[in-house]
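1st attempt posting a full record on here, be nice pls
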Amino acid sequence: MFGVRDVMGDAEAAEFLESRDIYATPVLSVDGALVVGFQKDRIDRLLGLGD
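the predicted structure (as tokens):
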């Protein structure tokens, strides 16, 4: 499932990130693993995409 949460307009989403000491966006969650910023290799690995 894909969903978008806007931390500028969603206080709950902002609090979720702040509680984990995350103050940057974008943040991607894959099966509970949080990826801050665009880390293509890590995202591919978490999604099970290979070479």
